[in-house]
Amino acid sequence: MTMGANLGGAKGSFERCEKTAHSLTSAISSMVSSTTESRVTLQAGGRSSYTERSGLSSEKHSFPKLSWRFYKILEHYIYDPKVQCLVTSSLMPLAASYTNPTEVNRRMGSNPPHLAINANYFGKGAERVAFRCRLADESNIRGFVFEDMIAKETKHDQRIQERIEFHKSFAETQDLANYLADQFNAHIRGIPGYDPLLTPVIRFVSCSVLVVEDHSAPGGSRGVLVEKMLDTESFRWTKWNDNAGAVDGKRVHMPIDVDFQMKEMQREKAPLDMMGEESGDESISQILNRTRVRLVTLK
Predict the structure, then answer these.
(1) At a CB cut-off of 8 Å and minimum separation 6, what does 263 contact?
(2) Is the pTM value of this prediction over 0.70?
(3) Do residues 118 and 66 touch, judged by C-beta distance below 8 A?
(4) b/e 38-53 (16+ beta carbons within 10 angstroms → b)
(5) Which of 19, 122, 261, 262 is deepest in the core (most CB within 10 A)?
(6) pLDDT (tens digit, 9 = 90+) per residue, 128-176?
(7) Which residues of 152-161 are buried (b: 16+ CB within 10 A; e: fewer)?
(8) Is beta strand 221-228 parallel, antiparallel or unpaired with respect to 144-154?
(9) Per DSSP, what are the bridge partners of residue 298?
């Protein structure tokens, strides 16, 4: 039954759960996610052009829960808003810097050479799958340093070969979110009654992109976006938005396929630019470029 639905363009999987609150919650969450993804796909015009990677197992349904795979770190990238792209960096991955800045300073630039990634995923969304990961000085658990982090990568077979490029838009979004948070916090500090110890502020986790050696991946390497793992057991965590255009359970806008829309804009940009040049008006490309330059200048 599940295979028939998938062949028709829907997203689904067979769920068998025990009659416990935890298992039922997991099954319902999976059902909601697959139903939402199916609706987005079908509203976008039918069957998705991407196929989900096979063999992905959740931590919740795996025994043992942790099955570490060790990879040699080849390159480290961070997003640079000045050039609007990911650039190589010799710094420690930003997630490690946030979890233990004292240890980063003590190591004096001696970065861990290995990244351990759990074979079972921690969470899965509409575009990405997230795995628990650790930095390591050795290719075994005795070499673990710093705290747990999260490694995110595409959940679709067709996009694994993109390695670094796949993560650019996510890193750019997080960088912009950090900038907006800083601006918001600056305004908060100016309000009457502001107390640095009591007044809440907004912070976004910074991310790095690591390229690791993986002989099973296309080209012998794969790119993962690494960020600090949130402590959801000690601190309450709420996901306000979903993948169906709703915020806090209320419909705000229709969901869109960002990749599809960007490709359509690129395809339509050339004739639109020609129309602009013929009429003597500013072309679409010029308007977009001028807007991006203005955003970078503000930052």
Answers:
(1) none
(2) no
(3) yes
(4) bebbeeeeeebeeebb
(5) 122
(6) 999 999 999 999 999 999 999 999 999 998 888 888 999 999 999 999 8
(7) bbbbbeebbe
(8) antiparallel
(9) none
